[in-house]
Amino acid sequence: MSITETWRLRAQFAAGLAAMYGAEVPAYHTLVEVSSEVNRGVVAADGEAVRLGSLDRVTAERHGAIRVGTAEELADVADLFSAFGMYPVGYYDLREAASPVPVVSTAFRPIDPEELARNPFRVFTSILASADRRFFSDDLRARVAAFLETRRLFDPALIAAARRIAADGGCPTTEADDFVAASVSAFALSREPIDRGWYDELSAVSAVAADIAGVRSTHINHLTPRVLDIDALQRGMTARGITMIDHIQGPPRTDGPQVLLRQTSFRALTEPRRFRLADGSVVDGTLRVRFGEVEQRGVALTPLGRQRYDAAMACPDPAAVWDQHFPATDAEMAASGLAYYHDGDPARPVVYEDFLPASAAGIFRSNLDGDSPAAEGADDTSYSQDWMAGRIGHHIHDPYDLYEKVACS
């Protein structure tokens, strides 16, 4: 029996989501076109740019983002993505960002270097932190829970098939197309009418909360290409008449090694949606929820490097003090133990494969028309990496452990 390997399933899944999302959000195609143009230009001008990934890999690379409401829904996501060789890595608490969002998150991605090289598709996945009284009153929290209990995001047969494929390490080729198609369709934007009053009540707390618990399905919130020069991308998109967010998220542009992750996006676009009113009538309306994000990835920092990064970013103008925290060359970065390099070779940086909670929260909030701040008070919830791992039944990998293994391999 012919078997479709996991990485091929993942590549097919990523391509299917891109085709669907592009049909739903046409400006995504423009983002991909400009990203590809920038990447070709960067490599043509500087052949050393491919040390952070071949042109083919960088141009094909994507990450997606989805949002769910309950630990049970997140467990289904974990089981589904395991069929594509994507495992939870890292724990992100966006409630603690400067622009707080009531979610905690992980990222599903390949963890083996060869799998990343073949197809590095990632999905940043957030779960609504509805137990947090700083965002949700007791009454609203109870009604959110009741609403989420009445919906089912994924067909149980699809999740059962995913578990079987994950256990077998691949999918019978005769079943692969149908499995991938069903997986893609699970993240399509629903055309079911939205309860206007309920959605608006949640929006008063957070537009992200409304996008999660104000509808009866989940969907791709954004799909992100990778670019080798995000500043050039920002200029190129603006030249095409597309409104970008005001500031690139993440570390500043520097003359030295680019570190971690820089992100930008075009503003969320107005999309037609149908709403059910209190009298039962259905009317046409619009929402601004989904946006087009793009990312530039740099070298992965060690824990010491991350301490330096956090200190620099805490300054009013990180660019002005950057050279006080980081040296100007990869050789000095490697010698100082600030970043990961293959076998310590500064010509071979280990690419950062993960995310920054402050940047994610910044992107989320910069695309919203408005959001209420969290109430004052201490966090009395149990949200943590251990909590999440226990609820989804999957080990959550430590990014630093993975980078250490890659650097030594």
TrEMBL record:
GO MF, one example: dioxygenase activity
EC number(s) stated in the UniProt entry for this protein: 1.13.11.93
Pfam families: HGLS
Signal sequence interval, chain numbering: none
Needed co-factor(s): Fe(2+)
SMART domains cross-referenced by the UniProt entry: DUF1338
Key words of the record: Dioxygenase, Iron, Oxidoreductase
PANTHER family: 2-OXOADIPATE DIOXYGENASE_DECARBOXYLASE, PTHR39479
Family: Belongs to the 2-oxoadipate dioxygenase/decarboxylase family.
Record-given protein name: 2-oxoadipate dioxygenase/decarboxylase
Species of the source: Mycolicibacterium chlorophenolicum
Phylogenetic placement of the source organism: Bacteria, Bacillati, Actinomycetota, Actinomycetes, Mycobacteriales
